[in-house]
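The protein record filed here:
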Amino acid sequence: MSDKAVNLSLVKLVIIIATTVYSFTSMSNAFYLMSYAAIPWYILAGILFFIPYALIVSEYTGNFKNQSGGIYSWIVNSTSPRVAFMTVFLWYSSYTIWMASLFMKFWIPLSILFFGEDRTTSSRLVLGIPQIRWLGLGSLVAVALVALLISRGFTTISHFMLLGGVFILILFGIAAISNLFVLIHNNFTFSQPFQGMHSLLAAQNPTYQGLFGNLGFFIFGITAFGGLDTVASLVDKTGTGKNKFPKAILIATFVIAGTYLSGIFLWGASANWHTLFANKDVSLGNAMYFLMQNLGEQVGQISGLSADKAALVGQVYLRITGLALFWAYVGLLVTISYAPLKAIIEGTPKSYWPKALTRKNKHNIVRNAVWVQAVLIIGLVLLVSFGNAKATSLYNNLTLMTNVSRSIPYLIVALSFPLFRRKRSTYELLTESQVPWASGTVSVSIVAAIIFTVIQPITQARYLDSFFLIIGPIAFSLIALWLYRQFQKKISANLAGISNHRS
């Protein structure tokens, strides 16, 4: 059965787009880092980065809804094949290296679901084997399962994207309704006192006070809005939905912004910042679990349950969070394992790659490329879980090298947009006078994020980290440039061979 496209309704598209970008973890971490003071910075990140970037991506998808290259198709029609290939290579490489760490984190919500705590970092031995190696073996199985799902076509991919999105919406709904329930019961008195502008401008966390601290959180806000281009790369697979895709992006933009802002604000109904986060075990990796467990306990208490039963309700909320985030991880991993690969293999000229990589199965998926990518990710997972300290350090340095590299493709998309509008455009949302504003604000935001990302380790005397952050995009760009030249030589040699054969 052919699986060239899946007809998705506007509602399903909005759910998939919104929940691919929106992160329940980022929303919870924003409250953990800044409390109510996170809200103005999220608004600023939305105005300066997310909304104009969404408009740019919406225009690109409207104009290239039938092309499978995603970012490559956008850039090649705006600048040149060389710039487009270097951009998509940076984009793909960053995602591939990041995926290895995501597969290692994949088991954390499952551990929360079954045990009520994160046991993935435990140093205990299981059957005489260190926990990290069991985690690595489990991650290898997860990589293979995701590759198998992708190989079954976009119908399967879209089902898991939608499933993960629905679970995240349910989780947000539980958190929002429960916080409102607590707020109403407490006569609209917040657990974290809200004092108007003072609460919005003064961060509770001393680390995020002052100009440098606030700039750091602004970058965090921009990061929370990332990922729109990834899901937009799948527009050609959405059947009749491709005509609704630009509209779905715009609707999802406001859904994402609304869930972030309302969610951060409502956490204050049940969570007193100083009381809850006085626990030194709370971190960016688990703040959402503490918030949800505390919320469940409060719901139990105000419902008249005993302390033990209220604690049980807290455990239920905690494990629901683990369940929802597990399926969200599945949806995310399926998406980012497929979309960047599709862009670099299907978007670029077929002559660049060996025929085996571009060959498609009956589900219209480049199955061999999917499994080659899986082997690459498995290699990175093995490096982390079975390697020595030097191997782990190598992977950490590779990750640092991709941090800035991942931002550069977004910058090139924004910078190339005015060039695209001058060349060709049949679907337009922005007027000619608005194009420089959209391109400029997005570009300035990303440049600010890159500069801060590089400088921040220097302020903490982590000079080697800054070195890898800088060298990363340079190294990946040089590799991309070398590959591009090899591809061009290959094409020239093939053309010369055809010419000689005809003569």
Remarks:
- The longest strand covers residues 125-126.
- The beta strands are 125-126, 129-130.
- Residues 10-498 form a domain with the Amino acid/polyamine transporter I fold (CATH 1.20.1740.10).
